[in-house]
């Protein structure tokens, strides 16, 4: 018995096999691509139009020099750390701050501070490598110079080197900052499947463009910053390292010093190199993680049962496995006849449709959970939506009661729901989902409530509850500062709160937050509808028919909830498209995608079954709604 | 090889009404008067439709010339015509700018022109203007001259959309409900229309500058839906769009432009696009998705076309013998693709024999491109009128049951009009093509575009857009000999349940 237990594949092991292995592969590829990008960087940094032969020969000798090799080793370390950060910080459900305060809190979170610090250091390291590679006046921090009055040779501060190093730190920080603002670590799945190499090739121009644009922006901002505050680090460094400041050279924090074409060129080239290294790592990570994984539908050995599709679908600990399983379900329902037949098959002793039951139950529980979330949100908006927006007025009682609801109402672990029970059960669990979109986080800024909602984790009870006055501090407090921060922090917070109190609620953010994890629902809808449609001709034992009424009711109830949601203000306004950034903004339109997928799913079923739907046992209102679909009037 | 001479020539050159008993009957046939089906057949004339007379840029000549500052003019040129316009403006106002700037911009302009002419010599279609390009690659014959610009049947209901010369779109339904007219600021030079499958309302429109997705509520009685009902999808460098194709599941939309080497796969609701780039061919002109959704044909302006497999989106290159692929149609089961090439009187067939799904094989279609049919010679239609037909194949259409194939043959000069030849097709036991007859319009009218009704109950229904602006429907009444493939049990079941009150699911019947 003990041996079989040890041989059983633990779900954690599947996770290890899939995700860890994939991220290791992506990091390995980014390291392998590093010499190529470095070579391109060397060529560009030493570029001289009028001496092409000298340029080429210099570059080849530089590429084989020991300093370049050492730089490469340092850069490898940087890429490794970037890759580890990707693995640690990536999220499938974006955290959507519902107000500016929440955004500020995310930026100032200790975890984010560590992240920024590490990226600043890495930026400086990369810039150090870049300045060594560019050579010439950039290569070292100290240069010998002659003092004007005495004439003796002393070591002076090389401001060019310092300029590049500080630029690296600045770019590192802005990368880390924009990572939060633009949800850089949000990994979205593509609507189509592609092999890794074509996808990489297709995305590469975008990455180059983004890194060039980002580098130009950062260079501009940094030059402006250095112009005003450049003397601070300069005097500090020169005093701590006892370096003289060469007065014969033009200082860089002046207009004439900054308007040096060669300096700006090298700054932007190095910045592009820096950003490209990071973006490439992110891109490779995204490509590897979102690659479709084919789970076995059933296994002949009980040891492998844990890695089968129905088991992984019910996975609650690792979100990425659940997403991959749902994606696989959507794909198999459309493309793979043999695997569909496995889904419809009966268990060998007993003749139970375990596979279909588990899969349909999991999909339907996902969908009905979304229905409840939507209903709860609508009720919240209908009852006290206005109170929320007028947040400047502090309402102690309502706020504290609401937070108690959050903390005390247990998270629903949603079992299979019949359509009738959806309404009744939604009443009980209303408040938990009610405030959830407005409190995106409890313990981490990078995991939104949707993650925990999906995973079904209990919300930890924060010691802050019940002690604070402001509803905003209340809602966002636990996320902003950990409980150890004391009175000063709270004072600061309320002060900041006053600053941001005008226009606190970001428009449509709550709507986005509601649908933040809707990719899972879209796959569930696709998978269910295609399986049901395929069952019309492929299901030999009629296993699907027993669940058909509940599936149809589930879809119609969800459709009604979604329709109502789109009648709310801001829900149907389209977000502004960002021009070029590495951050993925697909989450902003997920609600539209979900609505379209839902309608398509219902149409798929109604067109396949046609008049046969009259024989399905569903309630009259639902039948009326389905009749609309049969007549193509939706 | 098939000579058009074996086609049964119509007795008179009158309008073809329908097919019955394996015979195409015309209006002058004794005893046949009425229009056979209850579908609207509107007519549009060029006079009633006022197209937008001239492009905006040429309206400048109407206004008085006013001297702006150089900055204003440069900004205007940049806005109107991009980099070219800016450089042109600087070069033209040489006396106001420093000499080096004028000379520099002149040099850059010359360099750009040289480069683009070189590029244009590789791909001649790039030298065309936007409107010419749309006219060249539109499926509508003689697009620029026609009152009708495009036509599309709804895949599930008796509803069709027509794009007209004045850049509006009208939607007709079978019953006498109001016909909505769609107009939008961006809706210029409509080249293609397609309704979204598995949806009642969404219509994709390929325009000159962008892609429009109209959401026309079928229950609404409004005759002028506001432009807020339209979604605008655009991507820099991806215009004019000459072809669009929805996936049969309705989840994706692919758009193609002859200028852009990548075709866009849109997730319409999320408004995000994935470009799929293949440089060879210099652009994509025509797209056609197979009915089972597993493959997508993408034709280029060069002698090359590709067949994409839609699971992992890899493609096969098919260099054609000569000329670009002009039109294509899929068999209902998606196993056979018929193609026509520009300038050839030949139909090629591409058969796919792969087992997607059964063994999880991704793409191993053992395909063969074979010469299916050579439409040789001319057929003298009527000795009295001295008309002969026959020519280059420019459009193909296969009915959804796979029993009738309509081929639009391009005409040449007088007394040599374009004509639609219809074949009877059968796929089992061997593939067969039998001549059925010519579909004629009213006197002097030539066919411009044709499409089969996606779900006609009693056979097949061919809708033809004529050069006189009329849209007519030609039903072909026949009883299905055998379905061309795929879902035969489904169809058999559907025919079983004739009485809707006693509908039962099939397992109930079996058990």
From TrEMBL, chain A:
Annotated region (Disordered), positions in chain: 386-414
Keyword Ribonucleoprotein assigned to the entry: answer is: no
| Superkingdom, natural source | Eukaryota
**Which residue ranges traverse the bilayer?**
20-49, 69-93, 114-134, 160-181, 263-285
Q: Name where it's found.
A: Nucleus membrane; Nucleus, Nuclear pore complex
Q: Name one Pfam family in it.
A: Ndc1_Nup
Task: Return the GO cellular component terms, semicolon-separated.
Answer: nuclear membrane; nuclear pore transmembrane ring
Q: Which GO terms fall under molecular function for this chain's record?
A: protein-macromolecule adaptor activity
- This protein's major location comes to nucleus
Q: Which UniProt keywords apply?
A: Membrane, mRNA transport, Nuclear pore complex, Nucleus, Protein transport, Translocation, Transmembrane, Transmembrane helix, Transport
| Topology in membrane | Multi-pass membrane protein
Q: Where is the composition biased (Polar residues)?
A: 386-401
Does the keyword Transport feature in the UniProt annotation?
yes
UniProt record, GO biological process: mRNA transport; nuclear pore organization; protein transport
> Which family would the database say this protein is a member of?
Belongs to the NDC1 family.
Function in brief: Component of the nuclear pore complex (NPC), which plays a key role in de novo assembly and insertion of NPC in the nuclear envelope. Required for NPC and nuclear envelope assembly, possibly by forming a link between the nuclear envelope membrane and soluble nucleoporins, thereby anchoring the NPC in the membrane.
Protein name from the UniProt record: Nucleoporin NDC1
- Which organism encodes this protein? Cyprinus carpio
What does UniProt list as this organism's lineage? Answer: Eukaryota, Metazoa, Chordata, Craniata, Vertebrata
From TrEMBL, chain B:
Q: Which GO terms describe its biological process?
A: nucleocytoplasmic transport
Give the species this sequence originates from: Cyprinus carpio (Common carp)
Record protein name field: Aladin seven-bladed propeller domain-containing protein
Aladin seven-bladed propeller domain residues are: 130-477
Tell me the segments the record calls region Disordered.
33-60, 491-511
Q: Where is the composition biased (Basic and acidic residues)?
A: 47-57
Q: Which InterPro entries match?
A: Aladin, Beta-prop_Aladin, WD40/YVTN_repeat-like_dom_sf, WD40_repeat_dom_sf, WD40_rpt
Question: Which GO cellular component terms are attached?
Answer: nuclear pore
Judging by the UniProt lineage, the source's domain of life is Eukaryota
């Amino acid at each position: 018995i003990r041996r079989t237990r040890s041989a059983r594949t633990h779900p954690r092991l599947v996770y290890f096999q899939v995700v860890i292995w994939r991220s290791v592969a992506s990091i390995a590829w980014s390291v392998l691509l590093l010499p190529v990008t470095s070579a391109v960087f060397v060529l560009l940094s030493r570029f001289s139009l009028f001496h092409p032969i000298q340029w080429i020969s210099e570059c080849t000798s530089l590429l084989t020099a020991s300093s370049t090799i050492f730089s490469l080793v340092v850069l490898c370390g940087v890429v490794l750390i970037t890759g580890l950060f990707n693995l640690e910080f990536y999220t499938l459900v974006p955290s959507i701050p519902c107000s500016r305060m929440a955004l500020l809190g995310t930026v100032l979170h200790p975890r984010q501070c560590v992240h920024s610090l590490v990226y600043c250091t890495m930026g400086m390291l990369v810039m150090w490598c870049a300045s060594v590679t560019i050579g010439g006046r950039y290569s070292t921090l100290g240069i010998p110079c002659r003092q004007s009055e005495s004439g003796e040779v002393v070591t002076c501060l090389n401001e060019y080197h310092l300029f590049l190093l500080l630029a690296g730190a600045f770019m590192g920080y802005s990368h880390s900052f924009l990572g939060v603002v633009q949800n850089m670590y949000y990994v979205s799945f593509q609507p189509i499947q592609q092999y890794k190499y074509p996808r990489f090739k297709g995305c590469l121009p975008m990455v180059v463009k983004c890194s060039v644009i980002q580098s130009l922006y950062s260079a501009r901002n940094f030059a402006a910053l250095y112009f005003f505050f450049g003397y601070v680090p300069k005097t500090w460094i020169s005093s701590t390292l006892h370096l003289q400041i060469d007065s014969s050279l033009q200082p860089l924090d002046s207009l004439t010093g900054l308007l040096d074409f060669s300096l700006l060129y090298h700054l932007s080239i190095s910045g592009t190199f820096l950003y490209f290294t990071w973006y490439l790592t992110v891109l490779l990570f995204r490509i590897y993680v979102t690659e479709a994984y084919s789970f076995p539908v059933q296994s002949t050995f009980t040891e492998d049962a844990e890695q089968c599709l129905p088991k992984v679908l019910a996975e609650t600990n690792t979100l990425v496995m659940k997403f991959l399983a749902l994606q696989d379900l959507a794909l198999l329902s459309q493309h793979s006849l043999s695997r569909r037949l496995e889904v419809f098959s009966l268990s060998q002793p007993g003749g139970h449709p375990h596979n279909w039951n588990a899969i349909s139950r999991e999909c339907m529980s996902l969908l009905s959970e979304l229905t409840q979330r939507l209903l709860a949100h609508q009720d919240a908006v209908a009852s006290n939506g206005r109170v929320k927006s007028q947040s400047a007025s502090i309402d102690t009682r309502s706020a504290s009661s609401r937070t108690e609801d959050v903390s005390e109402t247990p998270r629903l672990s949603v079992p299979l729901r019949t359509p009738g029970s959806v309404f009744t059960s939604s009443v009980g669990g209303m408040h938990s989902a009610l405030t959830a979109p407005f409190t995106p986080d409890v313990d981490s800024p990078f995991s939104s409530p949707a993650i925990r909602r999906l995973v079904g984790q209990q919300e930890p009870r924060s010691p802050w509850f019940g002690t604070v006055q402001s509803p905003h501090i209340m809602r966002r407090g636990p996320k902003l500062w950990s409980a150890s921060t004391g009175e000063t922090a709270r004072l600061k917070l309320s002060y900041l709160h006053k600053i941001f109190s005008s226009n606190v609620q970001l428009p449509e953010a709550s709507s986005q937050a509601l649908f933040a994890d809707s990719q899972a629902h879209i796959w569930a809808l696709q998978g269910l509808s295609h399986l049901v449609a395929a069952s019309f001709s492929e299901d030999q034992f009629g296993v699907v028919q027993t669940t058909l009424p509940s599936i149809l009711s589930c879809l119609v109830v969800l459709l009604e909830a979604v329709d109502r949601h789109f009648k709310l203000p801001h829900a149907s306004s389209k977000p502004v498209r960002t021009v070029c950034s590495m951050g993925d903004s697909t989450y902003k339109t997920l609600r539209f995608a979900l609505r379209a997928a839902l309608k398509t799913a219902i149409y798929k079923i109604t067109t396949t079954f046609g008049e046969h739907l009259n024989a399905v046992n569903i309630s009259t209102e639902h039948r009326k709604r389905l009749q609309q679909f049969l007549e193509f009037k939706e | 090889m098939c000579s058009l001479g074996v086609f049964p020539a119509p007795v008179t050159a009158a309008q073809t009404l329908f097919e019955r008993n394996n015979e195409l009957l015309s209006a002058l046939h004794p005893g046949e008067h009425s229009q056979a089906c209850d579908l609207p057949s509107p007519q549009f004339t060029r006079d009633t439709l006022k197209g937008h007379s001239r492009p905006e840029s040429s309206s400048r000549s109407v206004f008085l010339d006013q001297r702006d500052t150089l900055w204003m003019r440069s900004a205007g040129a940049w806005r109107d015509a991009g980099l070219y316009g800016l450089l042109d403006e600087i070069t033209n106002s040489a006396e106001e700018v420093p000499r080096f700037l004028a000379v520099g911009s002149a040099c850059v302009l010359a360099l750009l022109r040289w480069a683009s002419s070189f590029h244009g010599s590789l791909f001649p279609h790039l030298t065309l203007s936007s409107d010419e390009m749309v006219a060249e690659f539109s499926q509508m014959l003689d697009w620029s001259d026609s009152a009708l610009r495009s036509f599309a049947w709804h895949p599930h209901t008796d509803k069709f959309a027509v794009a007209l010369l004045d850049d509006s779109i009208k939607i007709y339904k079978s019953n006498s409900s109001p016909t909505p007219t769609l107009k939008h600021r961006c809706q210029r030079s409509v080249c293609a229309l397609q309704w979204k499958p598995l949806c009642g309302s969404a219509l994709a429109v390929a325009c000159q500058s962008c892609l429009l997705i109209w959401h026309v509520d079928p229950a609404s009685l409004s005759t002028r839906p506001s432009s807020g009902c339209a979604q605008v999808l655009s991507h820099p460098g991806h215009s004019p769009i000459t072809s669009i194709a929805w996936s049969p599941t309705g989840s994706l939309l692919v758009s193609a432009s002859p200028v852009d080497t990548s075709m866009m796969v849109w997730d319409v609701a999320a408004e995000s696009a994935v470009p799929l780039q293949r440089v060879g061919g210099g652009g994509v002109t025509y797209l056609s998705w197979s009915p089972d959704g597993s493959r997508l044909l993408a034709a280029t302006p060069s002698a090359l076309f590709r067949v994409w497999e839609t699971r992992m989106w890899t493609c096969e290159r098919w260099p054609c013998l000569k000329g670009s692929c002009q039109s294509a149609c899929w068999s209902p089961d998606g196993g056979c693709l018929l193609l026509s090439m520009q300038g050839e009187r030949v139909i090629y067939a591409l058969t796919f024999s792969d087992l997607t799904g059964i063994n999880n094989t991704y793409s191993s279609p053992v395909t063969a491109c074979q010469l299916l049919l050579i439409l040789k010679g001319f057929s003298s239609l009527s000795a009295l009128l001295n008309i002969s037909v026959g020519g280059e194949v420019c459009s193909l259409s296969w009915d959804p049951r796979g029993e009738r194939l309509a081929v639009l043959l391009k005409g040449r000069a007088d007394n040599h009009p374009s004509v639609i030849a219809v074949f009877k097709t059968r796929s089992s036991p061997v593939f067969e093509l039998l001549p059925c007859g010519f579909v004629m319009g009213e006197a002097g009218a030539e066919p411009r575009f044709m499409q089969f009704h996606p779900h006609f109950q009693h056979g097949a229904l061919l809708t033809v857009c004529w050069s006189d602006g009329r849209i007519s429907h030609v039903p072909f009444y026949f009883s299905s000999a055998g379905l061309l493939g795929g879902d035969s049990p489904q169809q058999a079941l559907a025919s079983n349940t004739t009485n809707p009150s006693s509908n039962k699911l099939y397992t109930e019947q079996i058990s």
